[in-house]
Amino acid sequence: MTPRTTKPQMSVKDFEELARRAPEFVRLEFINGKVQVKPVPDGNHGEIVMWLIRRCMQQRPELSLYPEQGLKVEAYRKGRARPDGCLAPEENFVGQGEWAEPGGVLMTVEVTSRDADTDQRDRVEKPDGYAASGIPVYLLIDRDACSVTVHAEPEGGSYRSITTRPFGAVVELPDPVGITLETQKLKDYAD
């Protein structure tokens, strides 16, 4: 687990105001007390998210994979993240506004971007924030490593089970997700 920032850059209320006023081409997150800029996705990134949405709809039609839903994450909800996808029951986020509670979320998804902060943000800080929020599964689709990593069994602010498979492998997403991904197609989107 990464060390937590002892003094946040600003309050959550100030961050939410900043995020609300940011131009639409800028996506902000508040992780470990730091404001972070989330890159705008490229075409391959978006295609990976759509590929996953289709797989989820085919295997679990009672669930929805919500792209870019803001979540209150980290201990005591002092973080704000905007995962590439949140798998939850239909209508889970109705009435919750821009930053929703993570209750009901079965899985968060991140697809790595081509920026310098990806390693720290998607591979270290977000798994810790999602685990601390009790989200059962975190799926990382890593275009740099051409792999899929499944984080499961959150406990004490981290995931106890972490499994990585190369693009092309069959990946089982554990309960409560219960979806099988045949990832061969991801090789086409690795660039």
Q: Which short descriptors sum up this protein?
A:
alpha+beta, tt1808, chain A, six-stranded mixed sheet, globular, disordered N terminus
Query: What percent strand?
Result: 25-35%
Major pleated sheet: 6 strands, mixed
Globally, the shape reads globular
Q: Total number of helical segments?
A: 3
Please tell me the CATH architecture by its name: Alpha-Beta Complex
Class inferred from helices and paired strands: alpha+beta
CATH superfamily, please? tt1808, chain A
In total, the number of strands is 13
Helical content stands at 10-25%
CATH first level: which class? Answer: Alpha Beta
Count of the domains: 1
Low-confidence stretches: 1-5
Order of helices and strands: HEEHEEEEEEHEEEEE
Q: Tell me the distance between the termini.
A: 30 Å
The largest sheet has its strands arranged as 3-6-8-9-10-11
Average pLDDT reading? 84
What secondary-structure arrangement, pairings included, does this model have?
Elements lengths: L11 H10 L5 E5 L2 E5 L4 H17 L3 E4 L3 E4 L5 E3 L3 E5 L9 E2 L6 E5 L6 H15 L4 E6 L4 E9 L2 E9 L3 E4 L5 E4 L9
Parallel strand pairs: 4-7, 8-9
Antiparallel strand pairs: 1-2, 3-6, 4-5, 6-8, 9-10, 10-11, 12-13
Provide structural commentary.
This protein is an alpha+beta fold and 191 residues long. It has one domain: Alpha-Beta Complex (tt1808, chain A). 22% of the residues lie in helices and 34% in strands. The protein has three helices and 13 strands; from the N terminus they run H-E-E-H-E-E-E-E-E-E-H-E-E-E-E-E. The strands form four sheets. A six-stranded mixed sheet has the order 3-6-8-9-10-11. The protein has a three-stranded mixed sheet with strand order 5-4-7. Strands 1-2 form a two-stranded antiparallel ribbon. A hairpin with a 5-residue loop joins strand 12 (170-173) and strand 13. The model is unreliable at 1-5 (pLDDT under 50).
